[in-house]
Design goal:
Its EC number is 3.6.4.13. Pfam families: DEAD, Helicase_C. InterPro entries: DEAD/DEAH_box_helicase_dom, Helicase_ATP-bd, Helicase_C-like, P-loop_NTPase, RNA-helicase_DEAD-box_CS. This protein is of the alpha/beta class and 645 residues long. It has 2 domains: 247 residues, P-loop containing nucleotide triphosphate hydrolases (Rossmann fold); 215 residues, P-loop containing nucleotide triphosphate hydrolases (Rossmann fold, 3-Layer(aba) Sandwich), CATH 3.40.50.300. The protein contains 23 helices and 19 strands. It has an 8-stranded parallel β-sheet with strand order 3-10-4-9-8-5-7-6. Helix 13 links the parallel strand 6 and strand 7. Helix 1 runs parallel beside helix 5, helix 9 packs parallel to helix 11 and helix 19 crosses helix 23. The N terminus is likely disordered. Bound molecules: adenosine-5'-triphosphate. The site of adenosine-5'-triphosphate (ATP) has 19 residues, from helix 11.
Length: 645
């Protein structure tokens, strides 16, 4: 069965239609062909089955046209084959390529088939008629079915979604913004006995017998605020009380008793526990501070069953792991790096933790220490099946508390309360500290070590304990050797005898500890001025009694460092003096604009004076020839000594 099917996929352009029409015309049945031939007189060609096609206007289509429209000529050829065979009785090639052996003659018996074929062609003609009738230049402009108007666009949404980092920083500063601020001043002092109802008897007795009978301002404000909250929260829910109390941030000057301020509430809270579990972590930045905090906590917890442990870096991690597994301390004092090691080793779990205390917090938050902050936060989430905020009270202490919300944000603070002095600026110096600036001309800077020695001699006080800060370990080693040589070479007056000590990495840990004890002790029979030359490792939190003077031989690099250095003297509301040796206009300007400008002088803060204002004063910058000669000899010896090393 065949029929010339109209294939929509093969819809052609008008030109193609033109040609196919003409080729179709050439394939109409003989009967019609005869009619056409009569009209155009070219019957023979048709009979010869000449493959050339004639266009409507009788011109021969050349081969290039044919090549260019193979698909159309195929159709034409196919139709031709189809109909041509009918003429000469050949076999018929169906449209879909099949062949039947049935020979069709042009006899009447198939006229019905033909008529159907003709009808198909007629239908096709009608279908194509508009195109065929179309002449190139009569192309009608197709009327658009619809107005081509731009599709309505959604209104442009203003970029109200601020960029992620802006949103992040706002959320981070939010922690700071929602912080409750509690101001205090230096008048807030009261007897510890007034806390009799809130502190257990043993703890109160340890405070009054081993520390003091009256509080310092930061201790007053903290105990007045925290103790009632803690006692109430514990009475309501012994396990989740931390979430009710919220976190604590304390910005209090150096030597103001912060260690006692956080130790008292912790001991009070944990003294009623039954089984020893790790409930308080005290994180400090240096090993020296570990021992200092340990002593305070042991004194306070005497007579209770609380176990205070320390992590000694000289111990092996494995040994310490076993020790803590055998007996888990209630309170552990540790450096951040070591804490990360133990958490990764799984030495203890944080599920029972109630207090996380950060002492010298700005130093801790400024240094990554193996990313300790996120390790602890993740450890808390892992060990405790509770949704944030964790019921762990975070207590953050520093004399130069960071206002960097990014760093505070990492602590995931919960309803924090910040305690700070009622002062204009964040950093302030102890009330009884007096600073003096010594302006050294650049031309005389070669004799700076000599000026330092003459300054110490000019103090005329055998009880002098001067802590000299230099910028590096190397400077500490060289300066201490040079000072000792000058004393030996009598670069100073004969009766002056000064003990020179140094803390540096060349010394063993034991020798450094020995020098600190020697410097702090006043039990020597022959009292003489003592000088301890140290780097900024000694500036944080070190609590050495009776440091009478701090000398900034090299200027610190920041106001925070300056506060902590000067804070080694004038502690516990005692007096103290700080000297700044400024060489040339550059250092004088640096001190003024990068250090002094950050310090609050409005609350009890003394203003710095010039050395010449110090009474009695001696002009330490005037050196006679003999002194200069002795000094140069000492320098030569130091150089030779260094060369021999
Ligand atoms: N109420 C008090 N009365 C008398 N002395 C106190 C009192 N509280 C603390 N002290 C003493 O004051 C000294 C300084 O205390 P502490 O080391 O806690 O100060 P700090 O604020 O931590 O200083 P820094 O910021 O340098 O670490 C210590 O010797 C401590 O024993």
């Amino acid at each position: 069965m065949f029929a010339a099917r109209f294939d929509p996929t093969r819809v052609q352009s008008s030109e193609q239609n033109e040609r196919s029409k003409s080729s179709l015309k050439r394939v109409i049945p003989m009967k019609r062909a005869k009619e056409v031939a009569d009209d155009s007189g070219d019957e023979d060609e048709l009979n010869n089955g000449d493959s050339s096609e004639l266009s409507d206007n009788g011109k021969e289509n050349n081969s290039s046209d044919r090549d260019s429209d193979d698909s159309e000529s195929d159709l034409g050829m196919r139709e031709e084959r189809l109909l041509g065979s009918q003429q000469d009785g050949g076999s018929i090639a169906t449209i879909d390529g099949g062949t039947t052996n049935q020979v069709l003659s042009s006899t009447d018996k198939h006229s019905s088939v033909f008529s159907r074929f003709q009808k198909t062609l007629a239908i096709q003609d009608k279908l194509d008629a508009p195109d065929i009738m179309e002449s190139a230049d009569e192309k009608e402009v197709l009327e658009p079915f619809h107005e081509l108007v731009p599709i309505p666009q959604p209104t442009v949404v203003k970029d109200t979604l601020m960029s992620e980092e802006v949103a992040n920083s706002i959320s981070k500063s939010a922690a700071w913004l929602h912080t409750q601020r509690v101001r205090y001043d230096n008048t807030m002092i009261k007897p510890f006995a007034s806390y009799k109802a809130q502190l257990n008897e043993k703890l109160l007795s340890n405070i009054t017998t081993k520390f003091s009978s009256s509080t310092f301002p930061i201790q007053t404000i903290l105990l007045d605020t925290l103790l009632p909250r803690l006692n109430f929260a514990q009475s309501v829910n012994k396990k989740q009380f931390g979430r009710r109390v919220g976190d604590v941030l304390v910005n209090a000057s150096t030597g103001s008793g912060k260690t006692l301020a956080y130790s008292i509430p912790v001991i009070q809270c944990l003294s009623t526990r039954t089984v020893n579990r790790l409930r308080c972590l005290v994180v400090v930045p240096t090993k020296i501070l570990i021992h200092q905090v340990f002593e305070t906590l042991v004194k306070l917890s005497q007579g209770t069953s609380l176990i205070t442990g320390i992590s000694k870096l000289e111990n092996s991690l494995r040994e310490e792991h076993k020790k803590f597994q055998l007996q888990e301390p209630d309170i552990l004092i540790i450096t951040p790096g070591r804490l990360v090691d133990h958490l990764q080793l799984g030495t203890f779990s944080l599920k029972n933790l109630k207090f996380l205390i950060l002492d010298e917090a700005d130093r801790l938050l400024n240094q990554s220490f193996q990313n300790w902050c996120s390790v602890i936060m993740n450890g808390l989430k892992k060990d405790r099946d509770e949704a944030p905020p964790m019921s762990v009270i975070k207590m953050v202490f520093s004399a130069t508390l960071t206002t960097n919300t990014e760093k505070l944000h990492n602590l995931q603070l919960n309803r924090p309360t910040i305690f700070m002095m009622n002062s204009v600026k964040l950093y302030h110096l102890p009330k009884l500290l007096q600073e003096y600036n010594i302006n050294i001309p650049t031309a005389k800077s070669f004799a700076k070590p000599l000026f330092l020695l003459r300054l110490i001699c000019a103090l005329k006080d055998t009880q002098t304990r001067a802590l000299v800060f230099v910028r590096s370990n190397e400077a500490s080693i060289r300066l201490s050797i040079l000072l000792a040589l000058m004393v030996k070479e009598r670069a100073i007056s004969a009766e002056d005898d000064i003990e020179i000590l140094s803390i540096n990495s060349n010394n063993t840990r034991g020798l450094n500890n020995k020098h600190i004890k020697q410097f702090a002790s006043s039990s020597d029979s022959h009292i003489k001025p003592k000088v301890l030359v140290a780097t900024d490792l000694m500036s944080r939190g070190i609590d050495i009694e009776n440091v009478t003077h701090v000398i900034n031989y090299d200027l610190p690099i920041s106001s925070q460092q300056y506060v902590h250095r000067c804070g080694r003297t004038a502690r516990a509301q005692t007096s103290g003096v700080a000297f700044n040796m400024l060489v040339g206009k550059g250092e004088q300007s640096f001190w003024q604009h990068n250090i002094d400008s950050d310090l609050s002088r409005d609350v009890d803060g003394c203003h710095a004076k010039l050395y010449s204002d110090l009474e009695p004063t001696s002009d330490i910058l005037v050196i006679d020839d003999g002194t200069e000669r002795a000094y140069r000899e000492s320098l030569e010896q130091l150089k030779n000594g260094v060369r021999n090393d």
